[in-house]
Amino acid sequence: MSAQGTLPGGVLPGKYRHIELEPPLGQPGCPRGCDRLLFSHREQRLVPETQGSAFPGTELKAELPLWILFEELDVLDEAALRGLFGKHRFSAVMHFAGLKAVGESVQQPLEYYKVNLTGTIRLLEAMNAHGVRNIVFSSSATVYGDPAYLPLDEKHPVGGCTNPYGKSKYFIEEMIRDLCKAEKGWNAVLLRYFNPIGAHESGDIGEDPQGIPNNLMPYVAQVAVGRREFLSVFGNDYDTVDGTGVRDYIHIVDLAKGHITALKKLKENCGCKIYNLGTGTGYSVLQMVKAMEKASGREIKYKIVARREGDVATCYADPGLAAQELGWKAAFGLNKMCEDLWRWQMQNPMGFSKN
């Protein structure tokens, strides 16, 4: 199993509350890069990471402040999880670990169900056994399936997922909701991500997919920097502004801030809450290509190919509930997302391993 990104932070002297932060697969540099944000939320963190990451443990440990503990383990390893919880005192878990690629999930459904579902069950069992009953879960807008209406709010029906990846997220949401109903004292915030992109504005931290990128914007950036010849656009016959798929893209820093507000919500003994994290604006694939051409000053070649199984035409959020209950709202627009992504790509043209 591979993963990307982590969320380190500071330590409050004399306080020993630990938060386990599991890195996501396929999410661009997920909250790890948001240093100003993270060091303002001062609790000690222990940061597990799984094999094959774009942020290998040795590189991550070299960059972390000395007071941040780091442990590398596999979320499927039940003994390792129980050992981890037995060794440290945690107050909450932020659960990102899992496989994430729509197309790949269609080809490898059993692997997705094994890793995402079994991994979550083992994690929840370890938490329960050690009295840790607060969790923030990295869910996805894919749980909505093909939208019945737009923008998507949290009341939209879920479960009509078009691919195994989305189904795994939906099943995990249901699992956590049932747990919160059955077991007293459990609190959960389920964050339905839309499409995280961008990088830390320093250019030091960004998304470095292992192999061929499954996400649109890392692929676009690699074409712009010369690592790949052209972008394959999956379908141009959707009922959208230019025939290509429309998605709600959110800056990774805004996404990270959403997680901090979610942690604060857990302190209210909130039960199980669900929030969309998106901007509320949708952009097509070709609009994203043009935005990256503007940010990079380079032409980005693309070819139209057949639709990809499991994709929907249009998907964008109504993020109003997060604004109302969490006080969270996306601050960065499309130009900023592309500028930060391009800065990272230019500073790391061949990714972390070749830098």
Automatic annotation (TrEMBL):
CDD domains, alphabetized: UDP_G4E_1_SDR_e
Domain of life: Eukaryota
Pathway given in the UniProt record: Carbohydrate metabolism; galactose metabolism
Enzyme class: isomerase
Residues in coiled coil: none
Gene3D superfamilies: NAD(P)-binding Rossmann-like Domain, UDP-galactose 4-epimerase, domain 1
Cofactors that this protein relies on: NAD(+)
InterPro entries to which the protein is assigned, alphabetical: NAD(P)-bd_dom, NAD(P)-bd_dom_sf, UDP_G4E
PANTHER family for this protein: UDP-GLUCOSE 4-EPIMERASE
Assembly and oligomerization: Homodimer.
NCBIfam families linked: galE (TIGR01179), PRK10675.1 (NF007956)
UniProt-recorded name of the protein: UDP-glucose 4-epimerase
Classification lineage: Eukaryota, Metazoa, Chordata, Craniata, Vertebrata
